[in-house]
Amino acid sequence: EQIEKGGYPHFMLKEIYEQPQAIRDTFRGRMREHKGIIKMAGVDDHIDKFLNAKRLVILACGTSWHAGLVAEYIIEELVRVPVEVEYASEFRYRNPVIEKDDVVIAISQSGETADTMAAMKLAKEHGAFVFGVCNVVGSSISREAHAGAYTHAGPEIGVASTKAFTTQITVLTLLGLKIAKAKGKISTSDFHMHLEELRLIPEKVEEALKNNEHVRKIAEVYKDASNCLYLGRGFNFPVALEGALKLKEISYIHAEGYPAAEMKHGPIALIDEQMPVVVIATRRGHYDKIVSNIQEIKSRKGKIIAIVTKGDVTVKELADHVIEVPEVMDSMSPLLTTIPLQLLSYHIAVMLGKNVDQPRNLAKSVTVE
Ligand code: G6P
């Protein structure tokens, strides 16, 4: 097992560090920049389904559901088609409205999650075209789907999902760009700009990983917290949910993710000097609004850990701690802002002596209801 961990103390840390390569492996061979195309056989073979879809419905559980939420923001923005993201477990039991011209996307790292499998079968029964996004090649969901795309993240052993999440977002970004191009919703120059941004993501993830020691020191300060709030807006709202999930899963600290503006409808009542609040406050995404959310937290004495764009000055003055990520276009920022949140949870869990790779009560793939 030590050999498999490749010198890292835990699989989770190894997998966090594998993300630059995993993301590269996910887009390698698919981005044909010189030709200005994205090659995805599972989409190319069924392009009519995607072109005619009135709606996309995403089905998933856990971290994969969070990747689905990020995809909702990305695909709606690029393709201008409505996207709904459903918990597979809810979808399967509520007699859902599914039409023949819906395209259903089932996202599952393991490809074995019972609820996701049952939900996709139900969608098929209603005549929908089902596209699978899985990491494990030959898994049940990948076989049951009409077509699909693998994430190529390599085996993920840590129960808390890391590289599967970022590679799911990568695949779904490629999918959004591809459909947008096929539908004529994106200009050639914009399409190229997106491909170029995506191509640079692995290097930027590497840069974000260089903050590891800084993040560890922040973890030291907050490891004994009983609660933690995570806030984000827009593309980074699902990242707030995912950050909170990571902390819960491996450190057993109660954490909640919220859209920052919703704070005033509840969580603000919890804020006092005992409450660390992690705020994703990168420059492009509703920056001014996030800054005013940060001021609201500060005036209630909450402790602020802000994820900011490199070179930020405004938030730096307000926050107790800042963690920088490289500049990137807004829609791709989740691929970077996720990194420090993974590291923060990891270090807190290690400091608390928790079993990081196999947290209590959780399983890597949930094959029963
Ligand atoms: C379990 C795992 C999570 C995962 C979820 C969905 O709860 O512990 O890490 O996100 O299942 O798994 P899937 O394989 O369908 O993505």
Average of pLDDT = 96
Helicity range: 40-55%
Please compute the radius of gyration using only Cα atoms.
20 Å
Strand content: 15-25%
Please describe the biggest sheet, giving its number of strands, its sense, and whether it closes into a barrel: 5 strands, parallel
Oligomer: single chain
Structural class: alpha/beta
Spatially, the strands of the biggest sheet line up as 4-3-5-6-7
Number-wise, the strands total 12
H/E series, N to C? HHEEHHEHEHEHEHEHHHEHEEHEHEH
Q: What distance separates the N and C termini?
A: 30 Å
Provide the low-confidence segments as ranges: none
User: What ions, cofactors and ligands are bound?
Assistant: 6-O-phosphono-alpha-D-glucopyranose
Tertiary shape: globular
List the total number of helices.
15
Label this structure with key terms.
glutamine amidotransferase, alpha/beta, 15 helices, binds 6-O-phosphono-alpha-D-glucopyranose, transferase, cytoplasm, 369 residues, 12 strands, five-stranded parallel sheet, 46% helix
Give a short synopsis of this structure:
Helix content is 46%, strand content 17%. It is globular. With 369 residues, it is an alpha/beta fold.
Q: Would you write up a description of this structure?
A:
The chain has 369 residues and is of the alpha/beta class. It has 15 helices and twelve strands. The protein has helices at 11-17, 19-27, 41-44, 47-52, 62-79, 88-91, 114-125, 140-144, 163-182, 188-209, 212-222, 237-251, 287-299, 314-318, 334-351; strands at residues 31-32, 37-38, 55-60, 83-87, 102-108, 129-134, 147-150, 227-232, 254-259, 276-281, 303-309, 321-325. A five-stranded parallel sheet has the order 4-3-5-6-7, with helices on both faces. Helix 8 links the parallel strand 6 (129-134) and strand 7. Helix 11 (212-222) crosses helix 15 (334-351). The radius of gyration is 20 Å and the shape is globular. The mean pLDDT is 96. The structure holds 6-O-phosphono-alpha-D-glucopyranose. 6-O-phosphono-alpha-D-glucopyranose binds next to helix 5.
